[in-house]
Write a structure and sequence with these properties.
The structure is a single chain. This protein is 30% helix and 20% strand. It is α/β, with parallel strands linked by helices and 521 residues long. Helix 5 crosses helix 9 and helix 5 runs antiparallel to helix 10.
């Protein structure tokens, strides 16, 4: 019996995954096959438990710490086979994992892996529940540690390798073996869908383990990690090094005026005045245009603030001209708060340098020196955590499909580097024509982080499934924009370097009023 599945969202973005299979209990064969998985034997793998979860009261997901931990009250009502275990491929490596398997009658014959946010170590129960509710066999790893912060990495090179790529790969290998044992057949297709660090994990899989997945969605990927962290810390340093009362500090109360000035300069360039910028790379905005002509006020920038804003847009650049990482894009100003409002930088950036790069918990970001610290970090850690390979021919050769997306208004991961990576792949593999048939990038205008986390907003997973299974390459993906749960516009997001071009008439809130093409503005 196919399940009827519902995901109920709470105001805090937690959800209950409820799949109703009717009154009949799961077949005894499913229970027996599940329990038998505890007897599986594989090198370096220990199965801790294998139990069929079908309590009428549901399965309460275990709590996990940190800002990205298990949402309170997460409960799974669907029956499933839950396998827990750990993998120890080398010394000082202990990779925890869980594999969840829907009953045979409710399986969609596919495997969907769950990504991990930031540097934390925890099973992502909310991701497992969401995948299970859609009929997937699914798995999650704690990436080799159980710590919501960064201190776990001090002096532990193997743990860093686990977090970078080994934990996802090893968990995928185990999950596929358990799927084969439980269902008596392999999954027809294996998919990855992750954002931020999960996007980085997906790119890394395509580069280092091309055999693991048939289709990968890499959303807002944390690409070239040592440079991303250096570039982000530089923006923190520019904005906050002298404190929130310094002349150059830009208070959040000025963000709306700056944003309005950017829109006035660039919004209409694409032919539609809609308080959004389709292609920020074509926006030529000078923050000096709103320099205060007299006393400081919330509608203008002081001279020192003009310089701060210029540096934030420009991003981190070495004295020899090397771009360490790009900055924030025009149009993103209303989302600057998390990164540069202060009074301290985000822990995800600051603690990276304290615990991972310099292994000094007392390190102070005010001492950050872009020239030396960016180079030093890449020298120390680049060979361990930077996965920047541009030859994806092995992934392509086995029929893999890679859909990468990036929000243009994203600030946690400055977006333009996604286009840099796509361009480098095309250069390595003989040009865009050699890449478009397996790897497409979608730059989402007027959107912040992780548009693809909701299929109703941006159905990246559905697009990559159709591409891999039906051979239908995505010539666009429709993005829905909502406020208070009400959709106010839909827009086609086009494969880079194309953009959405207004046809000249029709409702600008309707995706059908646009076509994909090369910008001419």
């Amino acid at each position: 019996m196919k399940p009827r599945c519902t995901i109920i969202l709470s105001p805090a973005c937690a959800f209950l995954a409820a799949c109703v299979f009717g009154a009949a209990p799961a077949p005894a064969a499913d229970r027996e096959a599940c329990v038998a998985l505890a007897q599986q034997r594989h090198d370096h793998v220990t199965i801790v438990s294998a139990a069929f979860m079908d309590d009428p009261a549901g399965f309460a997901a275990p709590p996990t710490p940190g800002v990205f931990g298990t949402p309170p009250g997460l409960k799974v009502m669907a029956p499933f086979c839950r396998v827990t275990g750990f993998i120890e491929p080398v010394r000082d490596s202990h990779i925890g994992f869980e594999v969840w398997l829907p009953p045979r009658g409710g399986w969609n014959a596919r495997y969907l892996a769950v990504g991990n946010p930031a540097f934390e170590g925890a099973i992502k129960y909310q991701g497992l529940a969401r995948a299970l509710a859609q009929g997937y066999a699914t798995a999650s790893t704690d990436t080799g540690h159980q710590d919501p912060g960064h201190a776990w990495a001090m002096g532990r090179r193997e743990a860093l390798i686990d977090w970078t790529h080994r934990a996802v790969h090893e968990t995928t290998v185990v999950a596929k073996r358990l799927i084969q044992a439980f269902y008596g057949r392999a999954a027809s297709y294996a998919y990855w869908d992750g954002c931020h660090n999960g996007g980085r994990q997906g790119l890394t899989e395509a580069q280092l383990h091309p055999e693991d997945f048939d289709g990968i969605v890499a959303g807002d990927p944390a690409y070239h990690l040592t440079r991303l962290q250096a570039g982000s810390e530089y923006l923190n340093w520019v904005a906050l090094k002298d404190g929130t009362h310094a002349p150059g500090y830009l208070p959040p109360a000025k963000y709306p005026a700056l944003h309005r000035a950017v829109l006035d300069a660039c919004d209409a360039k694409d032919g539609v005045k809609d308080d959004a910028i389709e292609d920020p790379t074509r926006c030529r905005f000078d923050p000096a245009s709103i320099r205060c002509p007299g006393p400081d006020n919330l509608s203008c920038l002081t001279e020192a603030q003009v310089e701060t804003v210029r540096r934030i847009y420009e991003g981190a650049r070495l004295s020899d001209g090397t771009q360490v990482y790009t900055g924030f894009e025009p149009g993103s100003e209303l989302l600057w708060n998390a990164m540069v409002a202060g009074p301290e930088p985000l822990d995800i950036n600051n603690d990276f340098f304290r615990y991972i790069a310099f292994e000094d918990p007392e390190w102070d970001f005010r001492s950050f020196d872009l020239e030396s610290d960016a180079r030093k970090t890449e020298e120390l850690l680049g060979g361990v955590i930077d996965t920047v390979q541009t030859d994806l021919s092995a992934f392509k050769a086995r029929g893999g499909r890679l859909l990468m997306y990036q929000g243009w208004n994203e600030t946690w991961i400055p977006p333009r580097m996604a286009t840099v990576y796509r361009d480098k792949v095309a250069q390595s593999m003989g040009g865009a024509a050699q890449v478009d048939d397996f790897f497409r990038l979608f730059m989402v205008p007027d959107y912040g982080m992780c548009a693809g986390n909701s299929s109703s907003t941006f159905d990246a997973l559905g697009a990559v499934r159709r591409w891999r299974e039906e051979g239908v390459a995505p010539d666009h993906v429709v993005a829905s924009y909502s406020d208070g749960g009400v959709v106010y516009k839909r827009r086609p997001v086009c494969p880079y370097p194309q953009v959405a071009i207004y046809k000249g008439d029709g409702d600008a809130a309707d995706a059908g009023s646009f076509r994909c093409g090369a910008p001419d503005w």
